[in-house]
Protein backbone atom coordinates (compact mmCIF):
# COMPACT_ATOMS: atom_id res chain seq x y z
CA UNK A 1 0.00 0.00 0.00
CA UNK A 2 2.76 2.38 0.98
CA UNK A 3 4.66 1.50 -2.19
CA UNK A 4 1.57 2.20 -4.33
CA UNK A 5 1.03 5.54 -2.63
CA UNK A 6 4.61 6.56 -3.37
CA UNK A 7 4.13 5.65 -7.04
CA UNK A 8 0.95 7.70 -7.25
CA UNK A 9 2.61 10.70 -5.59
CA UNK A 10 5.62 10.37 -7.89
CA UNK A 11 3.30 10.32 -10.90
CA UNK A 12 1.52 13.42 -9.67
CA UNK A 13 4.88 15.08 -9.06
CA UNK A 14 5.86 14.50 -12.69
CA UNK A 15 2.42 15.23 -14.12
CA UNK A 16 1.83 18.61 -12.50
CA UNK A 17 4.90 20.30 -14.06
CA UNK A 18 3.92 18.87 -17.45
CA UNK A 19 0.40 20.23 -17.08
CA UNK A 20 1.79 23.60 -16.05
CA UNK A 21 4.16 23.60 -19.02
CA UNK A 22 1.30 22.71 -21.37
CA UNK A 23 -0.81 25.54 -19.94
CA UNK A 24 2.03 28.04 -20.48
CA UNK A 25 2.56 26.86 -24.05
CA UNK A 26 -1.17 27.10 -24.72
CA UNK A 27 -1.59 30.60 -23.29
CA UNK A 28 1.68 32.00 -24.66
CA UNK A 29 1.40 34.71 -27.30
CA UNK A 30 4.51 33.50 -29.12
CA UNK A 31 7.63 35.54 -29.85
CA UNK A 32 9.81 36.49 -32.79
CA UNK A 33 13.64 36.47 -32.79
CA UNK A 34 15.53 39.75 -32.82
CA UNK A 35 17.17 41.01 -36.00
CA UNK A 36 20.91 40.37 -35.78
CA UNK A 37 23.94 41.32 -37.84
CA UNK A 38 26.48 38.93 -39.39
CA UNK A 39 28.25 38.56 -36.02
CA UNK A 40 25.05 37.71 -34.17
CA UNK A 41 24.66 41.09 -32.48
CA UNK A 42 21.20 42.72 -32.24
CA UNK A 43 20.66 45.44 -34.84
CA UNK A 44 19.65 48.54 -32.90
CA UNK A 45 17.92 50.26 -35.81
CA UNK A 46 15.92 47.16 -36.72
CA UNK A 47 12.51 45.96 -35.60
CA UNK A 48 11.22 42.50 -34.69
CA UNK A 49 7.84 42.88 -33.08
CA UNK A 50 4.83 40.60 -32.64
CA UNK A 51 1.92 42.74 -31.51
CA UNK A 52 -1.82 43.27 -31.35
CA UNK A 53 -3.54 46.21 -33.01
CA UNK A 54 -7.18 47.17 -33.16
CA UNK A 55 -8.66 47.10 -36.66
CA UNK A 56 -12.36 47.33 -37.39
CA UNK A 57 -13.12 47.31 -33.68
CA UNK A 58 -11.40 43.98 -32.92
CA UNK A 59 -7.91 42.93 -31.86
CA UNK A 60 -5.77 41.47 -34.66
CA UNK A 61 -2.11 40.46 -34.82
CA UNK A 62 0.83 41.84 -36.77
CA UNK A 63 4.39 40.66 -37.23
CA UNK A 64 6.82 43.47 -38.11
CA UNK A 65 10.40 42.65 -39.05
CA UNK A 66 13.12 44.62 -40.76
CA UNK A 67 16.79 45.49 -40.48
CA UNK A 68 15.88 49.19 -40.42
CA UNK A 69 12.65 51.00 -39.63
CA UNK A 70 13.63 53.44 -42.37
CA UNK A 71 13.27 50.79 -45.06
CA UNK A 72 10.11 50.94 -47.21
CA UNK A 73 7.03 49.22 -45.82
CA UNK A 74 5.97 45.95 -47.43
CA UNK A 75 2.61 44.48 -46.39
CA UNK A 76 1.85 40.82 -47.18
CA UNK A 77 -1.82 39.95 -47.66
CA UNK A 78 -2.17 36.21 -47.08
CA UNK A 79 -4.07 33.54 -48.92
CA UNK A 80 -7.32 32.38 -47.32
CA UNK A 81 -9.84 33.47 -46.20
CA UNK A 82 -8.82 32.29 -42.75
CA UNK A 83 -5.22 31.35 -43.56
CA UNK A 84 -2.07 32.76 -41.99
CA UNK A 85 1.15 32.81 -44.02
CA UNK A 86 3.21 34.31 -41.21
CA UNK A 87 5.35 31.19 -40.76
CA UNK A 88 5.80 30.66 -44.49
CA UNK A 89 6.94 34.20 -45.26
CA UNK A 90 9.31 34.07 -42.27
CA UNK A 91 10.77 30.80 -43.53
CA UNK A 92 10.99 31.42 -47.29
CA UNK A 93 11.16 35.20 -47.63
CA UNK A 94 13.30 36.27 -44.65
CA UNK A 95 15.92 37.93 -46.96
CA UNK A 96 13.35 40.63 -47.70
CA UNK A 97 13.81 41.86 -44.12
CA UNK A 98 17.17 43.32 -45.21
CA UNK A 99 15.49 45.60 -47.75
CA UNK A 100 11.98 46.22 -46.41
CA UNK A 101 10.13 46.65 -43.18
CA UNK A 102 8.07 43.50 -43.72
CA UNK A 103 4.59 43.51 -42.19
CA UNK A 104 2.48 40.39 -41.91
CA UNK A 105 -1.11 40.54 -40.79
CA UNK A 106 -3.16 37.66 -39.44
CA UNK A 107 -6.58 38.76 -40.64
CA UNK A 108 -9.69 38.24 -38.52
CA UNK A 109 -10.40 34.51 -38.21
CA UNK A 110 -6.84 33.41 -39.07
CA UNK A 111 -4.38 31.78 -36.61
CA UNK A 112 -3.32 34.46 -34.12
CA UNK A 113 -6.43 36.54 -34.96
CA UNK A 114 -8.75 33.53 -34.81
CA UNK A 115 -10.83 34.98 -31.97
CA UNK A 116 -11.63 38.08 -34.08
CA UNK A 117 -14.10 35.98 -36.08
CA UNK A 118 -16.59 35.72 -33.19
CA UNK A 119 -19.06 38.11 -34.80
CA UNK A 120 -19.76 36.17 -37.97
CA UNK A 121 -21.69 39.10 -39.47
CA UNK A 122 -18.41 41.03 -39.64
CA UNK A 123 -16.75 38.36 -41.81
CA UNK A 124 -17.47 40.18 -45.05
CA UNK A 125 -15.20 41.07 -47.95
CA UNK A 126 -15.85 44.76 -47.39
CA UNK A 127 -14.88 44.44 -43.72
CA UNK A 128 -11.58 42.80 -44.62
CA UNK A 129 -10.82 45.62 -47.08
CA UNK A 130 -11.81 48.18 -44.44
CA UNK A 131 -9.49 46.50 -41.90
CA UNK A 132 -6.66 46.62 -44.44
CA UNK A 133 -7.35 50.30 -45.12
CA UNK A 134 -7.10 51.04 -41.39
CA UNK A 135 -3.86 49.11 -41.28
CA UNK A 136 -2.37 51.28 -44.04
CA UNK A 137 -3.11 54.39 -41.97
CA UNK A 138 -1.63 52.84 -38.85
CA UNK A 139 1.59 51.82 -40.61
CA UNK A 140 2.19 55.00 -42.57
CA UNK A 141 1.55 57.16 -39.51
CA UNK A 142 3.69 55.07 -37.17
CA UNK A 143 6.71 54.84 -39.46
CA UNK A 144 6.35 58.29 -41.09
CA UNK A 145 6.05 56.88 -44.59
CA UNK A 146 3.54 58.02 -47.14
CA UNK A 147 3.00 54.74 -48.97
CA UNK A 148 3.26 50.97 -48.64
CA UNK A 149 4.20 48.20 -51.05
CA UNK A 150 1.46 45.55 -51.17
CA UNK A 151 1.94 41.84 -51.96
CA UNK A 152 -1.31 39.92 -52.33
CA UNK A 153 -1.38 36.12 -52.60
CA UNK A 154 -4.56 34.41 -53.88
CA UNK A 155 -7.34 35.60 -51.51
CA UNK A 156 -4.88 38.33 -50.55
CA UNK A 157 -4.68 39.29 -54.22
CA UNK A 158 -8.41 40.05 -54.18
CA UNK A 159 -7.97 42.22 -51.10
CA UNK A 160 -4.90 43.81 -52.68
CA UNK A 161 -6.69 44.87 -55.85
CA UNK A 162 -9.73 46.17 -53.96
CA UNK A 163 -7.47 47.99 -51.51
CA UNK A 164 -5.44 49.54 -54.32
CA UNK A 165 -8.67 50.70 -55.93
CA UNK A 166 -9.88 52.23 -52.65
CA UNK A 167 -6.61 53.70 -51.31
CA UNK A 168 -4.19 54.41 -54.18
CA UNK A 169 -2.73 57.40 -52.31
CA UNK A 170 -1.33 54.98 -49.69
CA UNK A 171 0.07 52.34 -52.04
CA UNK A 172 3.49 52.52 -53.70
CA UNK A 173 2.83 49.49 -55.92
CA UNK A 174 0.68 46.38 -56.01
CA UNK A 175 2.23 42.92 -56.52
CA UNK A 176 -0.22 40.10 -57.20
CA UNK A 177 0.75 36.42 -57.10
CA UNK A 178 -1.65 33.51 -57.39
CA UNK A 179 -3.86 36.32 -58.70
CA UNK A 180 -7.56 35.58 -58.51
CA UNK A 181 -9.92 37.43 -60.84
CA UNK A 182 -13.28 35.72 -61.30
CA UNK A 183 -14.64 33.32 -58.67
CA UNK A 184 -16.87 31.11 -60.82
CA UNK A 185 -14.59 30.97 -63.85
CA UNK A 186 -11.55 30.37 -61.64
CA UNK A 187 -12.97 27.37 -59.79
CA UNK A 188 -14.59 25.85 -62.87
CA UNK A 189 -11.31 26.04 -64.78
CA UNK A 190 -9.37 24.77 -61.75
CA UNK A 191 -11.60 21.68 -61.69
CA UNK A 192 -11.02 21.13 -65.41
CA UNK A 193 -7.24 21.48 -65.04
CA UNK A 194 -7.23 19.06 -62.08
CA UNK A 195 -9.11 16.53 -64.21
CA UNK A 196 -6.70 17.02 -67.14
CA UNK A 197 -3.68 16.53 -64.85
CA UNK A 198 -5.17 13.37 -63.35
CA UNK A 199 -5.72 11.96 -66.84
CA UNK A 200 -2.23 12.94 -68.00
CA UNK A 201 -0.58 11.17 -65.06
CA UNK A 202 -3.07 8.29 -64.99
CA UNK A 203 -3.82 9.27 -61.41
CA UNK A 204 -6.85 7.08 -60.76
CA UNK A 205 -7.11 8.09 -57.10
CA UNK A 206 -7.34 11.74 -58.10
CA UNK A 207 -9.96 10.94 -60.73
CA UNK A 208 -12.04 9.11 -58.13
CA UNK A 209 -11.80 11.99 -55.67
CA UNK A 210 -12.79 14.50 -58.36
CA UNK A 211 -15.79 12.36 -59.19
CA UNK A 212 -16.81 12.29 -55.51
CA UNK A 213 -16.69 16.06 -54.99
CA UNK A 214 -18.17 16.91 -58.42
CA UNK A 215 -17.77 20.29 -60.14
CA UNK A 216 -17.86 23.61 -58.23
CA UNK A 217 -19.34 25.79 -56.86
CA UNK A 218 -19.70 23.87 -53.60
CA UNK A 219 -22.16 24.53 -50.80
CA UNK A 220 -23.22 22.88 -47.57
CA UNK A 221 -21.40 21.89 -44.40
CA UNK A 222 -18.59 20.09 -46.26
CA UNK A 223 -17.93 23.04 -48.59
CA UNK A 224 -14.48 23.86 -47.18
CA UNK A 225 -13.33 20.25 -47.37
CA UNK A 226 -14.47 19.91 -50.99
CA UNK A 227 -12.68 23.09 -52.02
CA UNK A 228 -9.57 21.98 -50.15
CA UNK A 229 -9.72 18.70 -52.05
CA UNK A 230 -10.10 20.50 -55.38
CA UNK A 231 -7.20 22.87 -54.74
CA UNK A 232 -5.03 20.00 -53.51
CA UNK A 233 -5.72 17.98 -56.66
CA UNK A 234 -5.21 21.01 -58.92
CA UNK A 235 -1.70 21.43 -57.50
CA UNK A 236 -0.89 17.72 -57.10
CA UNK A 237 1.28 17.44 -60.23
CA UNK A 238 2.17 21.12 -60.60
CA UNK A 239 4.85 23.47 -59.30
CA UNK A 240 7.48 22.55 -56.75
CA UNK A 241 7.26 18.95 -55.59
CA UNK A 242 7.48 18.27 -51.89
CA UNK A 243 6.47 21.78 -50.86
CA UNK A 244 3.68 20.71 -48.50
CA UNK A 245 5.98 19.11 -45.85
CA UNK A 246 8.09 22.29 -45.75
CA UNK A 247 4.99 24.44 -45.32
CA UNK A 248 3.65 22.23 -42.55
CA UNK A 249 7.02 22.07 -40.78
CA UNK A 250 7.37 25.85 -40.81
CA UNK A 251 3.97 26.22 -39.12
CA UNK A 252 4.68 23.62 -36.44
CA UNK A 253 8.08 25.11 -35.58
CA UNK A 254 7.29 28.83 -35.89
CA UNK A 255 8.08 30.62 -32.60
CA UNK A 256 5.54 33.30 -33.53
CA UNK A 257 2.71 30.78 -33.08
CA UNK A 258 1.73 29.50 -29.65
CA UNK A 259 0.31 26.00 -29.29
CA UNK A 260 -3.14 27.56 -29.38
CA UNK A 261 -2.26 29.54 -32.53
CA UNK A 262 -1.17 26.34 -34.26
CA UNK A 263 -4.52 24.74 -33.56
CA UNK A 264 -6.30 27.90 -34.68
CA UNK A 265 -4.21 27.90 -37.87
CA UNK A 266 -6.10 24.81 -39.03
CA UNK A 267 -9.47 25.73 -37.53
CA UNK A 268 -9.36 29.18 -39.11
CA UNK A 269 -8.91 27.81 -42.61
CA UNK A 270 -11.97 25.61 -42.15
CA UNK A 271 -14.33 27.96 -40.33
CA UNK A 272 -13.49 31.39 -41.78
CA UNK A 273 -13.15 30.07 -45.32
CA UNK A 274 -16.66 28.58 -45.18
CA UNK A 275 -18.12 31.90 -44.13
CA UNK A 276 -16.30 34.23 -46.52
CA UNK A 277 -15.54 32.30 -49.72
CA UNK A 278 -19.18 32.03 -50.91
CA UNK A 279 -19.35 35.84 -50.84
CA UNK A 280 -16.97 35.86 -53.80
CA UNK A 281 -19.64 34.36 -56.07
CA UNK A 282 -20.17 37.71 -57.77
CA UNK A 283 -16.49 38.63 -57.98
CA UNK A 284 -15.21 39.71 -61.39
CA UNK A 285 -12.26 42.08 -61.15
CA UNK A 286 -12.21 42.57 -64.93
CA UNK A 287 -15.59 44.28 -64.69
CA UNK A 288 -15.32 45.75 -61.18
CA UNK A 289 -11.73 47.03 -61.24
CA UNK A 290 -10.78 47.87 -64.84
CA UNK A 291 -8.19 50.44 -63.74
CA UNK A 292 -5.75 50.95 -60.87
CA UNK A 293 -3.92 54.19 -60.12
CA UNK A 294 -0.77 52.44 -58.87
CA UNK A 295 2.05 50.50 -60.58
CA UNK A 296 1.13 46.82 -60.94
CA UNK A 297 3.23 43.64 -61.02
CA UNK A 298 1.80 40.18 -61.61
CA UNK A 299 4.19 37.38 -60.55
CA UNK A 300 2.55 34.22 -61.86
CA UNK A 301 3.30 30.53 -61.62
CA UNK A 302 3.37 28.86 -65.01
CA UNK A 303 1.69 25.80 -63.49
CA UNK A 304 -0.87 27.54 -61.31
CA UNK A 305 -4.06 25.54 -61.68
CA UNK A 306 -5.59 26.67 -58.37
CA UNK A 307 -6.00 30.23 -59.61
CA UNK A 308 -5.32 29.50 -63.29
CA UNK A 309 -2.81 32.00 -64.62
CA UNK A 310 -4.50 32.29 -68.00
CA UNK A 311 -7.34 34.22 -66.36
CA UNK A 312 -4.88 36.51 -64.58
CA UNK A 313 -3.05 37.16 -67.88
CA UNK A 314 -6.30 38.17 -69.57
CA UNK A 315 -7.03 40.57 -66.70
CA UNK A 316 -3.49 41.95 -66.81
CA UNK A 317 -3.79 42.66 -70.53
CA UNK A 318 -7.05 44.61 -70.02
CA UNK A 319 -6.12 46.36 -66.78
CA UNK A 320 -5.23 50.04 -67.05
CA UNK A 321 -2.46 51.23 -64.72
CA UNK A 322 0.40 53.78 -64.70
CA UNK A 323 2.77 50.87 -65.35
CA UNK A 324 2.38 47.09 -65.58
CA UNK A 325 4.86 44.22 -65.43
CA UNK A 326 4.09 40.50 -65.77
CA UNK A 327 6.79 38.00 -64.81
CA UNK A 328 6.59 34.22 -65.03
CA UNK A 329 7.81 31.65 -62.54
CA UNK A 330 8.43 28.62 -64.72
CA UNK A 331 8.76 26.13 -61.86
CA UNK A 332 5.90 27.36 -59.70
CA UNK A 333 2.27 26.55 -59.31
CA UNK A 334 0.01 28.55 -57.01
CA UNK A 335 2.67 29.92 -54.64
CA UNK A 336 5.75 31.50 -56.29
CA UNK A 337 6.85 33.15 -52.99
CA UNK A 338 7.36 29.70 -51.48
CA UNK A 339 8.09 27.57 -54.55
CA UNK A 340 10.77 29.84 -56.05
CA UNK A 341 11.58 32.11 -53.08
CA UNK A 342 15.02 33.15 -54.30
CA UNK A 343 13.65 34.51 -57.55
CA UNK A 344 10.62 36.05 -55.83
CA UNK A 345 12.75 37.83 -53.23
CA UNK A 346 15.22 39.08 -55.85
CA UNK A 347 12.45 40.55 -58.01
CA UNK A 348 10.94 42.43 -55.09
CA UNK A 349 14.32 43.80 -54.02
CA UNK A 350 15.16 44.93 -57.55
CA UNK A 351 11.76 46.48 -58.15
CA UNK A 352 11.74 48.41 -54.90
CA UNK A 353 15.21 49.75 -55.50
CA UNK A 354 14.20 50.99 -58.93
CA UNK A 355 11.05 52.68 -57.64
CA UNK A 356 12.67 54.20 -54.55
CA UNK A 357 15.60 55.55 -56.53
CA UNK A 358 13.23 57.08 -59.05
CA UNK A 359 10.99 58.70 -56.41
CA UNK A 360 12.80 58.69 -53.05
CA UNK A 361 10.78 61.61 -51.72
CA UNK A 362 7.61 59.50 -51.75
CA UNK A 363 8.90 57.55 -48.74
CA UNK A 364 9.16 60.73 -46.68
CA UNK A 365 6.16 62.45 -45.14
Strand proportion:
5-15%
Identify the strand order in the major beta sheet.
1-2-4-3-5-6-7-8
**Cα-atom radius of gyration:** 22 Å
Count of alpha and pi helical runs: 13
Rounded average pLDDT = 91
Query: Alpha-carbon distance between the termini?
Result: 77 Å
**Helix content estimate:** 40-55%
> What is the general shape?
globular
In words, what does this structure look like?
By secondary structure, this protein is of the alpha/beta class. The chain has 13 helices and 8 strands. It has an 8-stranded mixed sheet with strand order 1-2-4-3-5-6-7-8, sandwiched between helices. Helix 3 (about 125-140) packs across helix 4. It is globular, with a radius of gyration of 22 Å.
Q: Can you lay out the helices and strands and say which pair or pack?
A:
Blueprint: H1 2-27, E1 47-55, E2 58-66, E3 73-77, H2 86-92, E4 101-106, H3 125-142, E5 148-153, H4 155-166, E6 171-177, H5 183-200, H6 204-213, H7 223-234, H8 243-253, H9 259-276, H10 285-288, E7 296-301, H11 309-318, E8 324-329, H12 336-339, H13 341-358
Parallel strand pairs: 3-4, 3-5, 5-6, 6-7, 7-8
Antiparallel strand pairs: 1-2, 2-4
Helix pairs in contact: 2-8, 3-4, 5-6, 5-7, 6-7
Amino acid sequence: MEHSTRRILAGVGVGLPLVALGARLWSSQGATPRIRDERGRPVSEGIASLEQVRLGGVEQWLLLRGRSILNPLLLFLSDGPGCSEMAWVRHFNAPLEDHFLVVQWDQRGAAKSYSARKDRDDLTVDQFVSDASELLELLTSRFSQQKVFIVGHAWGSILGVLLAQRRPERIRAYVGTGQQVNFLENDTLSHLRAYELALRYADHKALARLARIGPPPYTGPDMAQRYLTLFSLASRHAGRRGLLPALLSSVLTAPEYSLRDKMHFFLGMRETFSRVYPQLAGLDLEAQVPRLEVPVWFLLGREDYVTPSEIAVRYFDKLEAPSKTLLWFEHSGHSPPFEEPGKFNAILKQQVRAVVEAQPEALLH
